[in-house]
Description:
two-stranded antiparallel ribbon
Amino acid sequence: MNYHPKYQGIACQSGDLLFSKINPRIPRLLIVPSLEFPLSCSPEFEIVTSKIEINNYGLKLLLSMPSVQMQINSLTAGTSSSHNRIKTADLANILLPLPKPHTSLYADWMTKVREYEQKEKAAWQTRLEMHNLKNSAIAILTDLEPNNLP
Length: 150
């Protein structure tokens, strides 16, 4: 891929959880998929990494919960709703409703987290295959002129 962005961005890698700090009332969370080239993201994203026993897929689900979103929304500041942002330090102080380890509730939740992770990875693989298929289909007809179709 021959791409040279105007701004470098922040290096990110497969498995990183990206959290949009701009307009957090619209939740935007992404686990960076495994791709074959270096990646970067805008500084408007926070790269969040789980430092506890759950993985970033579990953290993504926790950050998506309505009770957590209410906390995030209450900590945003800006000149208008379209320019609201949450500061990194404020994001670090969000309370997450994580069940206690070694309980049946925790085990049930972790089972769902693993299932979610598998489905999300499969969805990314499907998107990549669709992208490649689309490009292959377009490449077949690229040299044809609209008025010179066979």
